[in-house]
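Predict the 3D structure for this chain.
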Amino acid sequence: MHPELKLEEKYERNGWPSLARPDLKAPEGWSLSLITAHNRIRNHRLSPDGQTIAFIWDREGLSDVYTLPATGGWPERVSTNRGLVAYWSDEIPQWSPDSNWLAFGVEGHVHVVPRAGGVTKKLTSFASAGSSPVWMPDSQRLIVSVEREDAVQLLLTDRDGCWPRPLVTDLRGDAWDARPSPDGKQVAYVWRPFDDLNRLDVRIVDVETENSRELVGTPKIRAWSPRWSPDGGVIAFLTEQPDFNEIWLIRPDGTGLRQLTHLSHDAGDLAWSPDGTRLACSVNRNGSFDLALIDAQSGEPTFLGSTGGFHSRPNWSPDGKTLTFEYESPTQPPDLYRVDVETRAVTQLTFSNLPALARNALVTPEIVSYKSFDGLEIPAFLYRPAKPNGAAVLHPHGGPSSQYVMDWDILAQYFLAKGYTWIAPNYRGSTGYGFEFEHANYDDWGKGDMQDCLHGANFLRTLPGIDPARLTIYGGSYGGYMTALCLSRDPEYRFACGVSKYGDANLYSSWAQCNRDLRLYTEIFLGHPAKNRQKYIDGSPLYQVENVQKPVLILHGLDDDVVPPEASEEWVDALRKAGKTFEYKTYAGEPHGFLMRKTQLDAFGRMERFLDWYLQVG
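Done. Predicted structure below.
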Protein backbone atom coordinates (compact mmCIF):
# COMPACT_ATOMS: atom_id res chain seq x y z
CA MET A 1 0.00 0.00 0.00
CA HIS A 2 1.32 3.44 -0.90
CA PRO A 3 1.81 5.72 2.15
CA GLU A 4 0.53 8.74 0.23
CA LEU A 5 -2.75 6.84 -0.23
CA LYS A 6 -3.29 6.17 3.45
CA LEU A 7 -6.44 4.12 4.00
CA GLU A 8 -8.18 3.73 7.33
CA GLU A 9 -10.50 1.00 8.54
CA LYS A 10 -14.06 1.92 7.74
CA TYR A 11 -17.56 0.82 6.89
CA GLU A 12 -19.28 2.60 4.03
CA ARG A 13 -22.50 2.03 2.15
CA ASN A 14 -24.46 3.47 -0.72
CA GLY A 15 -28.14 2.64 -0.64
CA TRP A 16 -30.07 0.76 2.00
CA PRO A 17 -27.83 -1.63 3.99
CA SER A 18 -28.50 -5.31 4.48
CA LEU A 19 -30.10 -5.88 7.86
CA ALA A 20 -30.29 -8.85 10.16
CA ARG A 21 -33.45 -10.82 9.55
CA PRO A 22 -35.40 -11.04 12.82
CA ASP A 23 -37.12 -14.23 11.64
CA LEU A 24 -33.87 -16.13 10.98
CA LYS A 25 -31.66 -17.77 13.58
CA ALA A 26 -28.44 -19.72 13.30
CA PRO A 27 -29.05 -23.38 12.40
CA GLU A 28 -29.36 -25.71 15.37
CA GLY A 29 -25.91 -26.75 16.54
CA TRP A 30 -24.19 -24.01 14.56
CA SER A 31 -22.84 -20.51 15.11
CA LEU A 32 -20.27 -18.25 13.52
CA SER A 33 -18.36 -18.39 16.79
CA LEU A 34 -18.16 -22.16 16.44
CA ILE A 35 -16.86 -22.25 12.86
CA THR A 36 -14.18 -19.63 13.59
CA ALA A 37 -12.99 -21.40 16.76
CA HIS A 38 -11.17 -24.21 14.96
CA ASN A 39 -7.36 -23.96 15.11
CA ARG A 40 -5.63 -25.29 11.98
CA ILE A 41 -2.77 -27.80 12.33
CA ARG A 42 -0.52 -27.87 9.26
CA ASN A 43 2.90 -27.82 7.55
CA HIS A 44 4.57 -30.67 9.43
CA ARG A 45 8.04 -32.18 9.15
CA LEU A 46 9.22 -35.45 10.70
CA SER A 47 12.71 -35.27 12.22
CA PRO A 48 15.36 -37.36 10.42
CA ASP A 49 15.67 -39.66 13.46
CA GLY A 50 11.92 -40.30 13.23
CA GLN A 51 11.25 -39.30 16.83
CA THR A 52 9.60 -35.87 16.61
CA ILE A 53 7.20 -33.99 14.37
CA ALA A 54 7.48 -30.22 13.98
CA PHE A 55 4.37 -28.45 12.74
CA ILE A 56 2.58 -25.10 12.65
CA TRP A 57 -0.55 -24.47 14.68
CA ASP A 58 -2.72 -21.43 13.99
CA ARG A 59 -4.03 -20.47 17.43
CA GLU A 60 -4.07 -17.56 19.89
CA GLY A 61 -3.63 -15.12 17.00
CA LEU A 62 -0.28 -16.66 16.03
CA SER A 63 1.11 -19.26 13.62
CA ASP A 64 3.67 -20.73 15.99
CA VAL A 65 5.86 -23.80 15.63
CA TYR A 66 5.18 -26.80 17.86
CA THR A 67 6.69 -30.26 18.23
CA LEU A 68 5.00 -33.56 18.94
CA PRO A 69 6.30 -37.11 19.54
CA ALA A 70 6.00 -39.10 16.33
CA THR A 71 3.85 -41.62 18.17
CA GLY A 72 1.45 -38.88 19.29
CA GLY A 73 1.16 -37.10 22.61
CA TRP A 74 1.17 -33.65 24.12
CA PRO A 75 2.56 -30.90 21.82
CA GLU A 76 5.33 -28.58 23.00
CA ARG A 77 5.53 -24.97 21.86
CA VAL A 78 8.76 -23.91 20.14
CA SER A 79 8.15 -20.33 19.02
CA THR A 80 6.13 -17.70 20.85
CA ASN A 81 5.95 -14.69 18.53
CA ARG A 82 5.36 -15.98 15.03
CA GLY A 83 2.59 -13.81 13.59
CA LEU A 84 -0.37 -15.21 11.70
CA VAL A 85 0.54 -16.45 8.23
CA ALA A 86 -1.90 -17.72 5.62
CA TYR A 87 -1.63 -21.50 5.46
CA TRP A 88 -1.50 -21.53 1.65
CA SER A 89 1.69 -19.42 1.54
CA ASP A 90 3.58 -20.40 4.70
CA GLU A 91 6.86 -22.31 5.02
CA ILE A 92 7.47 -25.70 6.64
CA PRO A 93 9.79 -25.93 9.69
CA GLN A 94 13.10 -27.57 8.72
CA TRP A 95 15.00 -30.10 10.86
CA SER A 96 18.78 -30.27 10.70
CA PRO A 97 19.98 -33.68 9.44
CA ASP A 98 21.18 -34.59 12.95
CA SER A 99 17.68 -33.76 14.29
CA ASN A 100 19.13 -31.36 16.89
CA TRP A 101 18.00 -28.03 15.38
CA LEU A 102 14.92 -26.46 13.82
CA ALA A 103 14.93 -23.60 11.32
CA PHE A 104 11.89 -21.55 10.30
CA GLY A 105 10.83 -18.05 9.37
CA VAL A 106 9.67 -15.43 11.88
CA GLU A 107 8.67 -11.91 10.84
CA GLY A 108 10.50 -12.11 7.52
CA HIS A 109 13.75 -13.60 8.85
CA VAL A 110 15.18 -17.09 9.31
CA HIS A 111 15.47 -18.26 12.92
CA VAL A 112 16.95 -21.40 14.47
CA VAL A 113 16.34 -23.04 17.81
CA PRO A 114 17.86 -26.14 19.42
CA ARG A 115 15.65 -29.20 19.72
CA ALA A 116 16.24 -29.21 23.45
CA GLY A 117 14.55 -25.82 23.66
CA GLY A 118 15.54 -22.19 24.00
CA VAL A 119 14.96 -18.76 22.55
CA THR A 120 15.03 -18.59 18.76
CA LYS A 121 18.03 -16.91 17.14
CA LYS A 122 17.74 -14.74 14.02
CA LEU A 123 20.23 -15.76 11.32
CA THR A 124 19.54 -13.39 8.46
CA SER A 125 20.37 -10.02 10.04
CA PHE A 126 22.79 -9.50 7.14
CA ALA A 127 19.79 -8.90 4.83
CA SER A 128 16.57 -6.92 5.00
CA ALA A 129 14.73 -10.23 4.95
CA GLY A 130 15.40 -13.95 4.56
CA SER A 131 13.32 -17.06 4.02
CA SER A 132 13.18 -20.73 3.01
CA PRO A 133 16.00 -22.17 5.17
CA VAL A 134 17.54 -25.44 3.94
CA TRP A 135 20.10 -27.39 5.96
CA MET A 136 23.30 -28.72 4.47
CA PRO A 137 24.18 -32.34 5.39
CA ASP A 138 26.69 -31.21 8.06
CA SER A 139 23.85 -29.70 10.19
CA GLN A 140 26.00 -26.58 10.55
CA ARG A 141 25.46 -24.63 7.33
CA LEU A 142 22.19 -23.45 5.84
CA ILE A 143 21.04 -22.11 2.50
CA VAL A 144 18.67 -19.15 2.75
CA SER A 145 16.73 -17.19 0.16
CA VAL A 146 16.95 -13.41 -0.07
CA GLU A 147 15.51 -10.92 -2.51
CA ARG A 148 18.17 -8.56 -3.86
CA GLU A 149 17.97 -6.28 -6.87
CA ASP A 150 14.55 -7.69 -7.78
CA ALA A 151 15.73 -11.30 -7.92
CA VAL A 152 15.52 -14.17 -5.43
CA GLN A 153 19.04 -15.39 -4.66
CA LEU A 154 20.48 -18.29 -2.67
CA LEU A 155 23.09 -17.58 -0.01
CA LEU A 156 25.07 -19.91 2.25
CA THR A 157 25.37 -19.10 5.96
CA ASP A 158 25.58 -21.14 9.17
CA ARG A 159 23.80 -21.70 12.47
CA ASP A 160 25.49 -18.66 13.96
CA GLY A 161 24.33 -16.37 11.17
CA CYS A 162 27.82 -15.74 9.79
CA TRP A 163 28.27 -13.35 6.89
CA PRO A 164 26.92 -15.28 3.89
CA ARG A 165 28.64 -16.23 0.70
CA PRO A 166 26.76 -16.35 -2.61
CA LEU A 167 25.58 -19.63 -4.00
CA VAL A 168 23.19 -18.53 -6.78
CA THR A 169 23.04 -14.78 -7.46
CA ASP A 170 22.19 -14.57 -11.16
CA LEU A 171 20.03 -11.46 -11.58
CA ARG A 172 18.46 -12.78 -14.77
CA GLY A 173 15.94 -14.84 -12.79
CA ASP A 174 14.74 -16.25 -9.47
CA ALA A 175 16.30 -19.23 -7.69
CA TRP A 176 14.02 -21.36 -5.49
CA ASP A 177 13.73 -24.67 -3.64
CA ALA A 178 17.39 -25.44 -2.90
CA ARG A 179 18.06 -29.18 -2.41
CA PRO A 180 21.60 -30.25 -1.37
CA SER A 181 22.95 -33.57 -2.59
CA PRO A 182 23.51 -36.23 0.10
CA ASP A 183 27.25 -35.51 0.10
CA GLY A 184 26.71 -31.74 0.25
CA LYS A 185 28.84 -31.02 -2.81
CA GLN A 186 26.05 -29.91 -5.12
CA VAL A 187 22.69 -28.19 -4.77
CA ALA A 188 19.77 -28.72 -7.12
CA TYR A 189 17.37 -25.80 -7.38
CA VAL A 190 14.55 -24.36 -9.47
CA TRP A 191 15.29 -21.45 -11.78
CA ARG A 192 12.76 -19.04 -13.28
CA PRO A 193 14.26 -16.86 -16.02
CA PHE A 194 12.69 -13.42 -16.29
CA ASP A 195 12.66 -13.55 -20.07
CA ASP A 196 10.26 -16.55 -19.98
CA LEU A 197 8.03 -16.42 -16.93
CA ASN A 198 6.18 -19.55 -18.06
CA ARG A 199 9.40 -21.54 -17.75
CA LEU A 200 10.90 -23.27 -14.73
CA ASP A 201 14.23 -25.11 -15.02
CA VAL A 202 15.96 -27.57 -12.72
CA ARG A 203 19.58 -26.55 -12.31
CA ILE A 204 22.59 -27.69 -10.25
CA VAL A 205 25.23 -25.52 -8.61
CA ASP A 206 28.60 -26.72 -7.33
CA VAL A 207 28.89 -25.58 -3.71
CA GLU A 208 32.65 -25.04 -3.83
CA THR A 209 33.02 -23.31 -7.20
CA GLU A 210 29.52 -21.74 -7.42
CA ASN A 211 29.38 -22.89 -11.04
CA SER A 212 25.80 -23.52 -12.13
CA ARG A 213 24.46 -25.55 -15.02
CA GLU A 214 21.08 -26.43 -16.47
CA LEU A 215 19.82 -29.94 -15.84
CA VAL A 216 16.30 -29.72 -17.29
CA GLY A 217 14.87 -26.78 -19.21
CA THR A 218 12.36 -26.24 -22.00
CA PRO A 219 10.93 -22.91 -23.20
CA LYS A 220 7.47 -22.19 -21.79
CA ILE A 221 7.46 -25.45 -19.80
CA ARG A 222 7.74 -25.76 -16.01
CA ALA A 223 9.96 -28.31 -14.21
CA TRP A 224 10.27 -28.15 -10.42
CA SER A 225 10.54 -30.02 -7.10
CA PRO A 226 13.97 -31.63 -7.59
CA ARG A 227 14.49 -34.43 -5.04
CA TRP A 228 17.76 -36.39 -4.69
CA SER A 229 17.62 -40.15 -4.25
CA PRO A 230 19.23 -41.26 -0.95
CA ASP A 231 22.39 -42.41 -2.75
CA GLY A 232 22.60 -39.22 -4.81
CA GLY A 233 22.50 -41.14 -8.08
CA VAL A 234 19.18 -39.83 -9.40
CA ILE A 235 17.08 -36.70 -9.12
CA ALA A 236 13.31 -36.97 -9.31
CA PHE A 237 11.38 -33.90 -10.35
CA LEU A 238 7.97 -32.80 -11.59
CA THR A 239 7.20 -31.35 -14.98
CA GLU A 240 3.95 -30.47 -16.74
CA GLN A 241 4.74 -32.82 -19.60
CA PRO A 242 3.22 -34.42 -21.55
CA ASP A 243 -0.10 -33.03 -20.24
CA PHE A 244 -0.12 -33.41 -16.43
CA ASN A 245 2.40 -32.93 -13.63
CA GLU A 246 4.22 -36.25 -13.95
CA ILE A 247 7.33 -37.53 -12.16
CA TRP A 248 10.51 -37.70 -14.20
CA LEU A 249 14.02 -38.91 -13.34
CA ILE A 250 17.47 -37.71 -14.40
CA ARG A 251 21.04 -38.32 -13.27
CA PRO A 252 22.98 -35.37 -11.83
CA ASP A 253 25.26 -35.36 -14.88
CA GLY A 254 22.25 -34.79 -17.15
CA THR A 255 22.00 -38.31 -18.55
CA GLY A 256 19.25 -40.87 -18.16
CA LEU A 257 16.29 -38.50 -18.51
CA ARG A 258 13.05 -40.51 -18.48
CA GLN A 259 9.40 -40.16 -17.56
CA LEU A 260 8.71 -42.33 -14.52
CA THR A 261 4.94 -42.01 -14.08
CA HIS A 262 2.08 -42.05 -16.57
CA LEU A 263 -0.70 -41.17 -14.14
CA SER A 264 -2.63 -38.76 -16.37
CA HIS A 265 -3.23 -36.88 -13.12
CA ASP A 266 -1.11 -34.30 -11.31
CA ALA A 267 1.49 -35.68 -8.88
CA GLY A 268 3.01 -33.65 -6.07
CA ASP A 269 4.75 -33.73 -2.67
CA LEU A 270 7.61 -36.03 -3.73
CA ALA A 271 9.50 -37.93 -1.00
CA TRP A 272 12.06 -40.72 -1.60
CA SER A 273 11.91 -43.82 0.60
CA PRO A 274 15.08 -44.34 2.70
CA ASP A 275 16.12 -47.30 0.54
CA GLY A 276 15.53 -45.42 -2.71
CA THR A 277 13.13 -47.99 -4.17
CA ARG A 278 9.95 -45.90 -3.98
CA LEU A 279 8.68 -42.35 -3.92
CA ALA A 280 5.73 -41.25 -1.85
CA CYS A 281 3.58 -38.57 -3.43
CA SER A 282 0.09 -37.14 -3.64
CA VAL A 283 -2.01 -37.70 -6.78
CA ASN A 284 -4.74 -35.25 -7.68
CA ARG A 285 -7.67 -37.26 -8.98
CA ASN A 286 -10.55 -34.89 -9.74
CA GLY A 287 -9.85 -32.73 -6.70
CA SER A 288 -9.14 -35.60 -4.30
CA PHE A 289 -5.46 -35.73 -3.38
CA ASP A 290 -4.69 -39.38 -2.69
CA LEU A 291 -1.53 -40.78 -1.12
CA ALA A 292 0.50 -43.07 -3.38
CA LEU A 293 3.78 -44.99 -3.50
CA ILE A 294 5.55 -44.95 -6.87
CA ASP A 295 7.95 -47.77 -7.78
CA ALA A 296 11.23 -46.04 -8.69
CA GLN A 297 11.90 -48.47 -11.54
CA SER A 298 8.53 -49.17 -13.14
CA GLY A 299 6.64 -46.03 -12.10
CA GLU A 300 3.67 -48.14 -11.05
CA PRO A 301 1.54 -46.49 -8.33
CA THR A 302 0.19 -48.14 -5.20
CA PHE A 303 -2.43 -46.10 -3.39
CA LEU A 304 -2.43 -46.02 0.39
CA GLY A 305 -5.49 -45.83 2.59
CA SER A 306 -8.82 -44.40 1.63
CA THR A 307 -9.32 -42.27 -1.44
CA GLY A 308 -11.06 -38.93 -1.28
CA GLY A 309 -10.14 -35.89 0.74
CA PHE A 310 -6.82 -34.07 0.66
CA HIS A 311 -3.62 -35.95 1.60
CA SER A 312 -0.40 -33.94 1.62
CA ARG A 313 3.26 -33.74 2.72
CA PRO A 314 4.20 -37.41 3.20
CA ASN A 315 7.31 -37.92 5.40
CA TRP A 316 9.12 -41.27 5.63
CA SER A 317 10.26 -42.78 8.91
CA PRO A 318 13.99 -43.71 8.90
CA ASP A 319 13.19 -47.44 8.64
CA GLY A 320 10.83 -46.88 5.70
CA LYS A 321 7.95 -48.65 7.43
CA THR A 322 5.64 -45.68 8.01
CA LEU A 323 4.72 -42.31 6.60
CA THR A 324 3.40 -39.29 8.41
CA PHE A 325 1.07 -37.08 6.40
CA GLU A 326 -1.59 -34.38 6.65
CA TYR A 327 -5.20 -35.05 5.81
CA GLU A 328 -8.42 -33.07 5.58
CA SER A 329 -11.74 -33.49 3.82
CA PRO A 330 -15.07 -31.67 3.54
CA THR A 331 -16.13 -33.42 6.76
CA GLN A 332 -12.81 -33.53 8.66
CA PRO A 333 -10.51 -30.62 9.55
CA PRO A 334 -6.75 -30.81 8.89
CA ASP A 335 -4.82 -33.13 11.21
CA LEU A 336 -1.63 -35.18 11.29
CA TYR A 337 -1.67 -38.94 10.66
CA ARG A 338 0.67 -41.92 10.33
CA VAL A 339 0.21 -44.88 7.98
CA ASP A 340 1.93 -48.27 7.98
CA VAL A 341 2.96 -48.77 4.35
CA GLU A 342 2.57 -52.55 4.51
CA THR A 343 -0.63 -53.03 6.52
CA ARG A 344 -2.20 -49.68 5.44
CA ALA A 345 -3.23 -49.12 9.06
CA VAL A 346 -3.74 -45.39 9.72
CA THR A 347 -3.23 -43.72 13.10
CA GLN A 348 -4.48 -40.21 13.82
CA LEU A 349 -1.88 -38.18 15.73
CA THR A 350 -3.65 -34.86 16.35
CA PHE A 351 -7.30 -34.16 17.06
CA SER A 352 -8.22 -30.60 16.17
CA ASN A 353 -11.94 -31.02 15.55
CA LEU A 354 -14.25 -29.37 18.05
CA PRO A 355 -16.76 -31.72 19.71
CA ALA A 356 -19.60 -29.35 18.88
CA LEU A 357 -18.61 -29.37 15.21
CA ALA A 358 -18.13 -33.13 15.18
CA ARG A 359 -21.76 -33.55 16.26
CA ASN A 360 -23.06 -31.81 13.15
CA ALA A 361 -23.86 -33.60 9.91
CA LEU A 362 -21.44 -32.25 7.32
CA VAL A 363 -21.93 -32.61 3.58
CA THR A 364 -19.57 -34.19 1.05
CA PRO A 365 -19.95 -32.53 -2.35
CA GLU A 366 -20.84 -34.28 -5.58
CA ILE A 367 -18.50 -33.87 -8.53
CA VAL A 368 -20.57 -32.57 -11.44
CA SER A 369 -19.90 -30.79 -14.71
CA TYR A 370 -21.69 -28.54 -17.16
CA LYS A 371 -21.00 -27.05 -20.58
CA SER A 372 -19.84 -23.47 -20.93
CA PHE A 373 -20.59 -21.07 -23.81
CA ASP A 374 -18.14 -22.78 -26.17
CA GLY A 375 -18.94 -26.36 -25.24
CA LEU A 376 -16.00 -26.71 -22.82
CA GLU A 377 -16.91 -29.03 -19.94
CA ILE A 378 -16.49 -27.26 -16.58
CA PRO A 379 -16.01 -29.49 -13.51
CA ALA A 380 -17.59 -28.34 -10.27
CA PHE A 381 -18.23 -29.39 -6.68
CA LEU A 382 -21.91 -29.34 -5.79
CA TYR A 383 -23.04 -29.30 -2.15
CA ARG A 384 -26.71 -30.11 -1.61
CA PRO A 385 -28.23 -29.07 1.73
CA ALA A 386 -30.47 -31.42 3.69
CA LYS A 387 -33.24 -28.81 3.71
CA PRO A 388 -32.89 -26.46 0.70
CA ASN A 389 -34.17 -22.90 1.11
CA GLY A 390 -34.27 -22.22 -2.62
CA ALA A 391 -31.20 -19.96 -2.67
CA ALA A 392 -27.77 -20.89 -4.06
CA VAL A 393 -24.18 -19.64 -3.86
CA LEU A 394 -21.73 -19.93 -6.76
CA HIS A 395 -18.21 -19.82 -5.32
CA PRO A 396 -15.31 -19.37 -7.78
CA HIS A 397 -11.91 -20.07 -6.22
CA GLY A 398 -8.93 -17.72 -6.12
CA GLY A 399 -5.83 -18.01 -8.23
CA PRO A 400 -6.69 -18.36 -11.04
CA SER A 401 -3.97 -21.01 -11.19
CA SER A 402 -5.55 -23.03 -8.40
CA GLN A 403 -8.42 -25.45 -7.86
CA TYR A 404 -11.36 -26.06 -5.55
CA VAL A 405 -10.68 -29.46 -3.99
CA MET A 406 -11.98 -31.97 -1.47
CA ASP A 407 -10.72 -30.07 1.57
CA TRP A 408 -12.12 -28.42 4.70
CA ASP A 409 -14.50 -25.55 3.86
CA ILE A 410 -16.40 -24.88 7.05
CA LEU A 411 -18.01 -21.66 5.83
CA ALA A 412 -19.68 -23.60 3.01
CA GLN A 413 -20.93 -26.11 5.60
CA TYR A 414 -22.44 -23.30 7.68
CA PHE A 415 -24.43 -21.96 4.73
CA LEU A 416 -25.48 -25.50 3.81
CA ALA A 417 -26.87 -25.88 7.32
CA LYS A 418 -28.89 -22.72 6.65
CA GLY A 419 -30.32 -24.34 3.52
CA TYR A 420 -28.21 -22.73 0.80
CA THR A 421 -27.09 -24.86 -2.15
CA TRP A 422 -23.37 -24.31 -2.82
CA ILE A 423 -21.45 -24.89 -6.03
CA ALA A 424 -17.72 -24.32 -6.62
CA PRO A 425 -16.76 -24.39 -10.32
CA ASN A 426 -13.25 -25.06 -11.49
CA TYR A 427 -13.41 -22.60 -14.38
CA ARG A 428 -10.93 -22.67 -17.27
CA GLY A 429 -7.47 -21.84 -15.96
CA SER A 430 -7.89 -24.10 -12.93
CA THR A 431 -5.18 -26.63 -12.16
CA GLY A 432 -5.71 -30.39 -11.96
CA TYR A 433 -7.30 -30.95 -15.38
CA GLY A 434 -4.30 -30.94 -17.68
CA PHE A 435 -2.04 -28.48 -19.44
CA GLU A 436 -4.54 -27.30 -22.04
CA PHE A 437 -7.32 -26.60 -19.53
CA GLU A 438 -4.92 -24.81 -17.16
CA HIS A 439 -3.71 -22.53 -19.94
CA ALA A 440 -7.16 -21.84 -21.39
CA ASN A 441 -7.43 -18.40 -19.78
CA TYR A 442 -3.96 -17.14 -20.73
CA ASP A 443 -4.36 -13.75 -22.43
CA ASP A 444 -8.05 -14.05 -21.64
CA TRP A 445 -8.74 -12.98 -18.05
CA GLY A 446 -12.32 -11.93 -17.49
CA LYS A 447 -13.75 -13.48 -20.64
CA GLY A 448 -13.99 -17.26 -20.98
CA ASP A 449 -13.51 -17.87 -17.25
CA MET A 450 -16.29 -15.38 -16.46
CA GLN A 451 -18.56 -17.16 -18.91
CA ASP A 452 -17.80 -20.41 -17.10
CA CYS A 453 -19.18 -18.84 -13.91
CA LEU A 454 -22.25 -17.45 -15.67
CA HIS A 455 -22.97 -20.86 -17.14
CA GLY A 456 -22.57 -22.27 -13.66
CA ALA A 457 -25.52 -20.08 -12.74
CA ASN A 458 -27.40 -21.56 -15.70
CA PHE A 459 -26.63 -25.02 -14.33
CA LEU A 460 -27.90 -24.06 -10.87
CA ARG A 461 -31.18 -22.91 -12.44
CA THR A 462 -31.78 -26.45 -13.71
CA LEU A 463 -31.57 -28.03 -10.26
CA PRO A 464 -34.80 -28.96 -8.51
CA GLY A 465 -35.81 -26.64 -5.68
CA ILE A 466 -33.62 -23.74 -6.82
CA ASP A 467 -35.26 -20.35 -7.34
CA PRO A 468 -33.51 -18.77 -10.37
CA ALA A 469 -34.09 -15.31 -8.85
CA ARG A 470 -32.13 -16.18 -5.70
CA LEU A 471 -28.58 -16.87 -6.84
CA THR A 472 -25.45 -15.11 -5.62
CA ILE A 473 -21.77 -15.18 -6.49
CA TYR A 474 -19.15 -15.06 -3.74
CA GLY A 475 -15.38 -15.27 -4.05
CA GLY A 476 -12.05 -14.14 -2.68
CA SER A 477 -9.03 -12.81 -4.60
CA TYR A 478 -9.50 -13.95 -8.23
CA GLY A 479 -12.90 -15.21 -7.09
CA GLY A 480 -13.69 -11.67 -5.93
CA TYR A 481 -12.60 -10.46 -9.35
CA MET A 482 -15.06 -12.98 -10.84
CA THR A 483 -17.76 -11.42 -8.68
CA ALA A 484 -17.03 -7.96 -10.07
CA LEU A 485 -17.01 -9.32 -13.62
CA CYS A 486 -20.27 -11.23 -13.35
CA LEU A 487 -22.10 -8.27 -11.85
CA SER A 488 -20.69 -5.90 -14.49
CA ARG A 489 -20.82 -7.92 -17.71
CA ASP A 490 -23.89 -10.13 -17.53
CA PRO A 491 -26.81 -8.69 -19.53
CA GLU A 492 -29.09 -11.38 -18.07
CA TYR A 493 -28.26 -10.42 -14.46
CA ARG A 494 -28.23 -14.02 -13.33
CA PHE A 495 -27.07 -13.14 -9.80
CA ALA A 496 -29.28 -11.26 -7.34
CA CYS A 497 -26.22 -9.96 -5.47
CA GLY A 498 -22.52 -10.60 -5.03
CA VAL A 499 -19.81 -10.76 -2.36
CA SER A 500 -16.18 -9.86 -3.12
CA LYS A 501 -13.41 -10.57 -0.62
CA TYR A 502 -10.15 -8.79 -1.47
CA GLY A 503 -11.03 -8.90 -5.17
CA ASP A 504 -9.98 -6.77 -8.11
CA ALA A 505 -11.65 -4.56 -10.69
CA ASN A 506 -8.76 -2.74 -12.42
CA LEU A 507 -6.00 -5.14 -13.47
CA TYR A 508 -3.58 -2.41 -14.50
CA SER A 509 -3.63 -0.36 -11.30
CA SER A 510 -3.50 -3.51 -9.16
CA TRP A 511 -0.50 -4.77 -11.14
CA ALA A 512 1.25 -1.47 -10.37
CA GLN A 513 0.52 -1.59 -6.62
CA CYS A 514 0.82 -5.27 -5.62
CA ASN A 515 4.01 -6.97 -4.46
CA ARG A 516 6.74 -8.11 -6.84
CA ASP A 517 5.70 -11.76 -6.90
CA LEU A 518 2.15 -10.92 -7.88
CA ARG A 519 3.26 -8.50 -10.58
CA LEU A 520 5.26 -11.29 -12.19
CA TYR A 521 2.39 -13.74 -11.62
CA THR A 522 0.04 -11.45 -13.53
CA GLU A 523 2.59 -11.08 -16.33
CA ILE A 524 2.68 -14.87 -16.72
CA PHE A 525 -0.93 -14.71 -17.92
CA LEU A 526 -1.21 -11.30 -19.55
CA GLY A 527 2.32 -10.15 -20.33
CA HIS A 528 3.70 -6.78 -19.30
CA PRO A 529 1.14 -3.95 -19.50
CA ALA A 530 3.62 -1.77 -21.38
CA LYS A 531 3.27 -4.22 -24.28
CA ASN A 532 -0.22 -5.59 -23.64
CA ARG A 533 -2.14 -2.70 -22.13
CA GLN A 534 -5.35 -3.58 -23.99
CA LYS A 535 -5.48 -7.02 -22.35
CA TYR A 536 -5.45 -5.35 -18.94
CA ILE A 537 -8.21 -2.95 -19.98
CA ASP A 538 -10.31 -5.70 -21.56
CA GLY A 539 -10.05 -7.74 -18.38
CA SER A 540 -11.05 -4.91 -16.01
CA PRO A 541 -14.74 -4.70 -14.97
CA LEU A 542 -14.17 -1.20 -13.60
CA TYR A 543 -14.97 0.09 -17.07
CA GLN A 544 -18.45 -1.48 -17.01
CA VAL A 545 -19.47 -0.21 -13.57
CA GLU A 546 -22.53 1.51 -15.09
CA ASN A 547 -23.91 -1.94 -15.89
CA VAL A 548 -23.96 -3.10 -12.26
CA GLN A 549 -27.59 -3.44 -11.20
CA LYS A 550 -27.38 -5.72 -8.16
CA PRO A 551 -26.08 -5.06 -4.62
CA VAL A 552 -22.51 -6.01 -3.78
CA LEU A 553 -20.69 -6.52 -0.48
CA ILE A 554 -16.97 -5.68 -0.65
CA LEU A 555 -14.51 -6.76 2.05
CA HIS A 556 -10.77 -6.05 2.08
CA GLY A 557 -7.76 -6.09 4.43
CA LEU A 558 -5.63 -2.95 4.60
CA ASP A 559 -2.31 -4.84 4.77
CA ASP A 560 -2.98 -6.79 1.57
CA ASP A 561 -0.05 -6.62 -0.85
CA VAL A 562 -1.37 -9.33 -3.18
CA VAL A 563 -4.57 -7.57 -4.24
CA PRO A 564 -3.90 -4.11 -2.76
CA PRO A 565 -6.74 -2.47 -0.80
CA GLU A 566 -6.67 0.37 -3.32
CA ALA A 567 -8.24 -2.14 -5.74
CA SER A 568 -11.46 -2.24 -3.74
CA GLU A 569 -11.20 1.46 -2.95
CA GLU A 570 -11.08 2.27 -6.66
CA TRP A 571 -14.06 0.05 -7.44
CA VAL A 572 -16.08 1.47 -4.55
CA ASP A 573 -15.32 5.00 -5.74
CA ALA A 574 -16.68 4.10 -9.18
CA LEU A 575 -19.75 2.38 -7.72
CA ARG A 576 -20.46 5.40 -5.53
CA LYS A 577 -20.20 7.85 -8.42
CA ALA A 578 -22.49 5.64 -10.51
CA GLY A 579 -25.06 5.49 -7.71
CA LYS A 580 -24.86 1.72 -7.23
CA THR A 581 -25.93 -0.17 -4.10
CA PHE A 582 -22.98 -1.51 -2.13
CA GLU A 583 -21.59 -2.12 1.32
CA TYR A 584 -17.87 -1.79 1.91
CA LYS A 585 -15.84 -2.87 4.96
CA THR A 586 -12.07 -2.76 5.42
CA TYR A 587 -9.97 -4.39 8.15
CA ALA A 588 -6.80 -2.96 9.65
CA GLY A 589 -3.92 -5.40 10.08
CA GLU A 590 -5.29 -7.98 7.66
CA PRO A 591 -3.16 -9.24 4.74
CA HIS A 592 -4.43 -11.25 1.79
CA GLY A 593 -6.87 -13.63 3.43
CA PHE A 594 -8.71 -12.87 6.67
CA LEU A 595 -6.51 -14.43 9.35
CA MET A 596 -7.71 -12.90 12.62
CA ARG A 597 -10.71 -14.50 14.26
CA LYS A 598 -12.35 -11.15 15.03
CA THR A 599 -12.14 -10.29 11.34
CA GLN A 600 -13.63 -13.62 10.30
CA LEU A 601 -16.51 -13.16 12.75
CA ASP A 602 -17.26 -9.71 11.42
CA ALA A 603 -16.86 -10.58 7.74
CA PHE A 604 -18.86 -13.81 7.94
CA GLY A 605 -21.59 -12.02 9.89
CA ARG A 606 -21.84 -9.29 7.27
CA MET A 607 -21.96 -11.91 4.52
CA GLU A 608 -24.69 -13.86 6.31
CA ARG A 609 -26.85 -10.75 6.77
CA PHE A 610 -26.23 -9.66 3.18
CA LEU A 611 -27.25 -12.98 1.64
CA ASP A 612 -30.20 -13.57 3.96
CA TRP A 613 -31.48 -10.07 3.17
CA TYR A 614 -31.00 -9.87 -0.60
CA LEU A 615 -31.76 -13.52 -1.40
CA GLN A 616 -34.92 -13.36 0.73
CA VAL A 617 -34.49 -16.82 2.19
CA GLY A 618 -37.26 -18.20 4.35
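The domain at 42-144 is CATH 2.120.10.30 (Neuraminidase).
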